[in-house]
Amino acid sequence: MAWQESAAASAARAMAWAAAATRGPRLSTLIFHRVLRQQDPIFPLELEAVRFERLMRIVARAFHVLPLHEAVARLARDELPARALTISFDDGYADNHDVALPILHRLGLPATVFVATAFLDGGRMWNDTVIECVRRTRHASIDLAEFGLPVMPSGSAAEKRQAIDKLLPVVKYRLPEEREPLLQRLHALCGHPELPDDLMMTGEQVRALPRGGVDVGAHTVHHPILLTLPDDVALAEMQGSRQRLQELIDAPVPLFAYPNGRPGQDYDERHAGMARRLGFAAAVSTRQGVAKAGDDLFHLPRFTPWETGALRWTASLALHHARA
Fold this sequence. Notes:
- The chain is α/β, with parallel strands linked by helices and about 325 residues long.
- It has helices spanning about 1-20, 50-60, 70-75, 95-105, 125-135, 155-170, 175-190, 205-210, 230-250, 270-275, 310-324, and strands at about 25-30, 65, 85-90, 110-115, 140-145, 150-155, 215-220, 255, 280-285, 290.
- The chain has eleven helices and ten strands.
- Strands 1, 2, 3, 4, 7 and 10 form a six-stranded mixed β-sheet that branches.
- Helix 1 packs across helix 2 (about 50-60).
- The radius of gyration is 20 Å and the shape is globular.
- The relative contact order is 0.16.
């Protein structure tokens, strides 16, 4: 633990410098998706429990960590403390509840989980179907001509990762009803491997989040790219996810996250207007940056460094907090 304390102390000094280098308080929001129990050979840089706890210990020491709903209210009133930060997770993975939540609880850190409701209780997101089809295939190669791709080797972890990285962009911007036939065809091309049905949260796990100090936010029903949808369908996606979540937790759901979240590419001002009209208090994107007093609460930025080492990760976050 000594090295962790040293890293945390260095992080605190870095953030003290960052706070001194900025004009006025600002809000950094971390964005995560999964926190695995152990390292994934295909995605070795994906966060796992040991590394996540290491980083959260540093965050607890270096930042003033707030619940997102409180941070939004204080941002609107220009009352943010120095080194303000919030923690968020997108999609609603079961490991957020099983792995991340106990770590956050031990460290006294609040967070928000944005849930795409169609995948609760045994569902699977389209990207995970792609990943798990390729991960679990026993074929030495996969003929992906139907996806506009060549025959790709799929024997090793590195080969599987390359095939996955090529497939995901092909499927991402399809409408939800167009994705399903593609996913079924990929499943067949991979030899119909058995796919997991426990990647996403159950309704009971969602209900447990507020009891563990975690806010629940809406993230649409089917996780579509909003700009690919007619406006009425996009509105129904946003409204339906919030309604389902409010029924589950028996409490208001005031926060929304745009799927994929890049302004102008995945959503635009029309969807921010929908979020306002639906009564959300704020919405978060995946645009890099920090939020400052006077910023639009329906285009809040988020950022997480990609560096793997704890000190480099923290230095990157500190620089981003100061310069963004």
